[in-house]
């Protein structure tokens, strides 16, 4: 298993994440709707809005998992935020970065992963909108376009949160 290296801008990335005051907040329907649609549209058992903290990946919205976070050291999303485009892993067992990852060899038995980086307009990639399946698969150009559009919706909601006066997000959730 290869843990993802830290991005060069990790300090600025974490500052932007912390400024959103979103970590460890209750579920919000606007994010939950997006992952529910993604899971249905792509016929995957797991869809997540994942935010990468210093030592964990925390799930702001989730379908198909009961946990709220996992270690950043085992995250696929840590690899996905290193690039501006969608990272697709057609078969995690055939990918040296992930073949012996405990999330592949054990529950939730990840075989397919697609992660679209959540990049703020200021350039920091905070996490991903990701799709996970227990069987190998691929995405075509249309699928990548749809995933990109859904990712843009998540980023728009994060940006709205960033621009809201303190306390307003808690009132409107």
Question: How would you describe what is shown here?
Answer:
The chain is an alpha+beta fold. Helix 2 runs antiparallel to helix 5. It is 35% helix and 22% strand. It is built from 6 helices and 6 strands, in the order H-H-E-E-E-H-E-H-E-E-H-H.
Structural class by helix and strand composition: alpha+beta
* Structural domain count: 1
Major pleated sheet: 6 strands, antiparallel
Radius of gyration: 15 Å
Summed up, the helix count is 6
Indicate the low-confidence ranges by residue numbers. 166-173
Quantity of strands, as a count: 6
> Given the C-alpha coordinates, what overall shape results?
globular
Q: Under the CATH scheme, which architecture would be assigned?
A: 2-Layer Sandwich
Q: Give the averaged pLDDT, no decimals.
A: 92
Strand content: 15-25%
- At the first level of CATH, the class is Alpha Beta
Helix content: 25-40%
Task: Identify the strand order in the major beta sheet.
Answer: 3-2-1-6-5-4
How far do the termini sit from each other? 37 Å
Give short descriptive properties of this protein.
173 residues; disordered C terminus; Beta-Lactamase; 22% strand; alpha+beta; six-stranded antiparallel sheet; single chain
């Amino acid at each position: 298993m290869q843990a993802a290296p830290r991005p060069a801008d990790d300090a600025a990335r974490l500052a932007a994440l912390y400024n959103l005051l979103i970590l460890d907040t209750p579920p919000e329907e606007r994010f939950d709707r997006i992952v529910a649609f993604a899971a249905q549209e792509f016929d995957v058992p797991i869809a997540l809005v994942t935010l990468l903290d210093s030592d964990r990946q925390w799930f702001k919205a989730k379908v198909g998992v009961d946990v709220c976070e996992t270690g950043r050291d085992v995250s696929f999303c840590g690899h996905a935020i290193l690039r501006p485009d969608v990272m697709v892993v057609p078969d995690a067992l055939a990918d040296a970065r992930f073949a012996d990852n405990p999330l592949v060899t054990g529950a939730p038995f990840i075989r397919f992963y697609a992660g679209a980086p959540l990049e703020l307009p200021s350039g920091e990639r905070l996490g991903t909108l990701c799709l996970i399946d227990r069987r190998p698969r691929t995405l075509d150009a249309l699928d990548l376009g749809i995933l990109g559009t859904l990712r843009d919706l998540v980023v728009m909601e994060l940006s709205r949160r960033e621009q809201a006066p303190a306390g307003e997000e808690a009132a409107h959730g």
